[in-house]
Amino acid sequence: MTHGPLMLDLEGHQLTSQEREMLCHPAAGGVILFSRNYQSPQQISALIDDIHRLREPPLLVAVDQEGGRVQRFKEGFSRLPPAAWFGELSKQNSKKAKSITQKVGWLMAAELRAVGVDFSFAPVLDLGFGASSVIGDRAFDRKPLVVSELAHAWMAGVHDAGMAAVGKHFPGHGWVTEDSHNELPVDHRRFADILMEDLLPFQRMIDYGMEAIMPAHVIYDQSDSKLAGFSKYWLQDVLRGQLGFKGVIFSDDLTMAAAEEAGGYAQRAKAAIEAGCDMVLVCNNPAGAIEVLDALKDYSNPAAQMRLIRMHGRKAISRDALHLDQRWKESIEWIAQYEATPSLNLDL
To answer: Are residues 268 and 197 part of one domain?
Structure first.
């Protein structure tokens, strides 16, 4: 079998018979895990092994493990700082901040690879304008060059651990105030303004070799009338054409309120794929996922298949070996300092 174009979620700590059937469907390509799927490192490792054994090539397994507010696996995993913490460190000592960012990026990826997760949907490349509550401290910084440098360091650590990187939310979610989970955000800025600021980290990270990108559920009405994730202009003309991106494009969750403008779940999935997405996400709605599986049962895209292969994790390390690694010890020490001194009064 090949990788289908749908990434879906699971109900609990183990696969149900219905989920096994859905994951063996030719249109299935991956699984995104949430906090409800996690009980312990041993349990999640067994669940992921079960998922990977279902078919060949194995389904991709992903999670949102950014740090700060967005970290699905907690107990038994290191509690990662929010991205903005690294940005604050950079204001004190940019060289040291990049070194710490790389170590913590490695830690995030190594801990996930130790239980079999292929990749995390990170890093966030949005700019911290201070307007978006849903982005907030998930952004490294307000300045595009600082975001680019820290994201590059984060990705270097992620790559060292054998994991691909996913930048989000293209072309930039930081300016709008609305939360696309619940509303339809509209960014009224000109393309030239977005190009000079928001797009810079994406361009830099593409040049550095980032493997995947997730577009924002935002309409940029001065450029196109459609959400970026449903827009050929943004995904094909700008991302693939102007920025030269050759990696995977994942849709954001098609169950989010902002995606409703594209119609039902089958219509949303088809619109995202026609716009240029290689894989679409349908979360927290099994009926919607089944609708998409049925709609895409005959879908095939050899080019997308080649891109998706790059998302499989490499060189997994055991948890015992991980805890003996000097990089793990150093990363844990920095996280301990973050927890002890959130005011960032560190000797940098």
So the answer is: yes
